[in-house]
Description:
The complex is a heterodimer of chains A (461) and B (362). Chain A has helices at 25-41, 58-71, 84-93, 126-138, 158-168, 190-196, 225-233, 261-271, 288-294, 308-318, 343-355, 359-364, 380-397, 436-460, and strands at 15-18, 47-52, 75-81, 98-102, 111-118, 152-154, 176-180, 200-204, 238-242, 249-252, 279-283, 300-304, 323-324, 330-331, 371-377, 401-402, 407-411, 414-420, 426-433. Chain A has 461 residues and is an alpha/beta fold. Chain A is globular. Chain B is an alpha/beta fold and 362 residues long. A seven-stranded mixed sheet of chain B has the order 1-2-6-5-3-4-7, with helices on both faces. Chain B has a five-stranded mixed sheet with strand order 9-8-10-11-12, sandwiched between helices. Chain B has helices at residues 20-35, 53-67, 79-88, 121-133, 153-162, 167-173, 189-196, 225-234, 261-276, 289-297, 309-319, 342-352, 357-361, and strands spanning 5-6, 9-13, 42-47, 70-76, 93-97, 106-112, 147-149, 176-180, 200-204, 238-242, 249-252, 258-259, 279-284, 300-305, 323-326, 330-332. In chain B, 59% of the residues are buried. Chain B folds into three domains: 5-152, Alpha-D-Glucose-1,6-Bisphosphate, Chain A, domain 3 (3-Layer(aba) Sandwich); 165-259, Alpha-D-Glucose-1,6-Bisphosphate, Chain A, domain 3 (3-Layer(aba) Sandwich), CATH 3.40.120; 261-362, Alpha-D-Glucose-1,6-Bisphosphate, Chain A, domain 3 (3-Layer(aba) Sandwich), CATH 3.40.120. Classes of the chains: A alpha/beta (461), B alpha/beta (362). Chains A and B meet through α1 and α2 of A and α1 and α2 of B.
Amino acid sequence: MKSDISKHIFRAYDIRGLYKKDISPEIFYKIGLAAGRYVKKTANGKQLVVGNDIRTSSYPLVHAFIAGVSATGVDVTYTGTTAFGQTLFKGWELKQDLIAFVTASHLPPEWNGIKFYYGDGVGLPEEELMKIRDFTLDGEFDVVDWKQVGTVNFVDPEESYKDFFQSKFKFNKKLRVALDCGGASMTLSAPEVFDAVGLDTVPVFCEPDPSFSKRPSDPKPKNLTVLVDTVKKNDCDFGVAFDGDGDRSVIVDNTGKILSADETGIILGKYGMNKNRGTIIVNVECSKAVKEQLSPLGFDVKQIQVGHTFLTLHAKQEKSPLGIESSGHLILPEYFPFDDALVVPLKIAEILDNAGKTLEELLKEVPTYPTRKEEIECADQIKFDVVNKLKNVFKTEFENTNTLDGIRINLDEGWVLIRPSNTSPIIRLTVEADDETVLNQLAKKFKKRTEETIEEVKGTK
Amino acid sequence: MTKLFGTNGIRGVVNEDMNCELALGIGKAWGTYLRKTIAKPNVAIGTDARLSNHMLKNAIAAGFLSIGCDVVDVGLVPTPALQYTVKEKDFDSGVVITASHNPPQFNGIKGIAKDGTEFSKDTEETIEKIYFGKEYSLAEWKDVGKLSCWDESTDIYMNGILANVDVDLIKKKQFHVVLDCGNGAGGEVTPILLEELGCKVTKLYCTPDGTFPGHNSEPVPENLHELINKVTEVGADFGVAQDGDADRAIFIDENGTYLWGDKTLALAAKYITKQNKGGITVTPVTTSSCFDDVVKANNAEVIHTRVGSPTVARVMMEKMPFLVGKKMVGLSFLKCSTVAIQQWQLQKYWKSWQGKTKHYLN
């Protein structure tokens, strides 16, 4: 059977598209059939948990998906409209074979999609997602007869999720925290959990707003002006913002300074690990400050390729105490193995409760290096060839390189990373250096080298 | 002529002709039909106890939602409870996922109109036309519907019945009833209701179970041996069996005699037309002439219709009589609601005639 479903909705980390244009209940029904087949054939299981974020189009999509899964004979536990972490938590708690969450993360409200995780909350890697893609597209499903149709149960994760945090976090001080949910899925869990653990919450966009009219769901610095003002005006101990589904958080200190994910990661590693040691997972885009700060404390630091799926996967394999992704995914496996961002502000609160210092003071002990990110336009068809060519050249040209994900050149005065984007027709250039002058020199030099190689490759095609 | 809808909705073998694609498409077609006249329709969906109910419910719900209808999932309910809910709670439509008395490999979709009656042929034809032409009015992302759950449907149904029967009279009689729900949708609500009426209930197969382990869900004599034996064994006043979605009831008298629906209906009609001193009754052409005999003897008129409870209900509403009959005992009473509160009403009369059964039947 030939499928009319676009291949392009299947991305490296998830499935996503514009509602009504790229994705529809019919397509999600088929994805449900494929996910059910995947559970039976590949995971050798029979149970799946699914929930959805607050996007309006999540309703038709999730119910069509459930019908598909059920038709293959796999039992479904539906958690309803939740924050990302609530559904992951329930799947992990119930030891399911596969967890699915209907969301388009930080994308605009007309988008939607679905993410898949193993039962312990580790994201499905690309090659596994591609199996679900192939099952969807080849149209051969394992639809069962009436006797074997999967059951569907609704389980509200709200109480057990809240109880979990209540049992893990107790504070001596009444900390004041500005909470920016951006009107997105975290409105369904964060205010309640913050309240339950005894934080004094100053809410910012904590009413559900499925069209994200108050701020875009991507918590980029330019979208966080209201949060920063709220922190300053209310003398908050810190502030936190979440993305659309709740797997990324951004921390703001008591002066209103927005922390990078690396800085937050360093604070968590330096002050939040108690006696836990082991290998901390960071991706190749992370600042060299992470290693400089955490190695002396007895941690090993392992660099991995970009992508939060790899983060949870490596953290699980290494039994890591901490995982840091420069895009804002942070994991604290002492609680659970997945990247539910709600745990990050709670851990920061615990650190401040114990430290007797403000977050600003703690940050002063962490050096920051100037960094720059550039996007170099390059057609999808040649971007991988260009980066491969650069890899070969730089491997011989420089002594200390790393080709986990694109190529990273480690120099005495800083480092450079060149990698193709998985989602857009661009090559990403990331540079970090000891000072601005060196930063400018490195950025200029490697941007030029990349552009020259693009021209060369274009010429040969 | 409708191709998908039969006399009682759409039926088929699960994951063969009755599959999710069909349910999804019907949800979209039905939603499109509602959206022609209503900006934001609300639809109640309930199911019987069949194993494929959740699957089909989710599929048809996805269809409604994608058109921009709000959906309320009322869970496992007798069909009349959903009909009553649609009318009482002002839904624009109701959906029952059920194959009534069919074997367990079947399932189906039954349509309920705004007034609680089953869909008319016209409505079914309109929906089919939209379905086959794929003329769906799909909503934009911001206008799709929401789904919520509501579990009070059986409560309001039960209270509706209790408010319309003579509870004190029935309680006084302290009936002993053998109830056989055949593992159908009535299994949860019917025992409670009878107990509320002061009856002692001996239960057979009152746990809803879509594999129908007790017996086939059609309440015909060959499926009810156990019930019939139980009635005489325990010395019950009567026995009652329901079909899979609990919109039909069959009675067994105190001697263990199976009463065909026509007989029970005639009995009720006789009592009511006598109380009412005449009036108009409506019943399909398949009903036994014993119905006509008893009704005419009380100076009441009989109007015959085509087969199918929607047709009967519609004629009934047109003519405004006080009793409607359908073969195999479906009774509707306008005085409380046009919705079929059926077997409970019948029980009221049945119970008030205890001891006089033979007299009336003869």
